[in-house]
Amino acid sequence: MTAYLIVRAEVDPSVRDPFDVWYQNEHLPDAVKAFDAVSAKRGWSAVEPDVHIAFYEFRDLEAAETLMKSDIMKGFIAEFDKHWAGKVERTRELVEFSQVI
After folding, report:
1. Most C-beta atoms within 10 A of its C-beta, which of 28, 66, 78, 81?
2. How many domains are contained in the chain?
C-alpha cells in the first residue's frame, strides 16, 4: 500500500523566504526525481507559520525504507544541512496507509 515520507521542518523566520524559494526551485524537483517518488507536495502550516511540511509519495513502504537507507538520502541530507544547518530543524516520518476510504 502507498507510503509517505513526511518531512516536518521548523524554519527560522529570518530565512523563511529564501528557504521557500530554494525548496520550490531546487530541492523538491530534484528530490522527487532522485527519490523515484510517485509524487511530492509541500506547504506551510496554517497553525504554526514557521513549520514547513513536505510529503513524498512512494508505491509502498519498502521503496520508502530503501530510500531512507540509501546514499541518495545521505547526499540530500548533507546538501540540506549545507544550506540550512542551525536555521532549520527537521524530523522525518515514514507512514504506510492502513486504510483509505
Report:
1. 28
2. 1
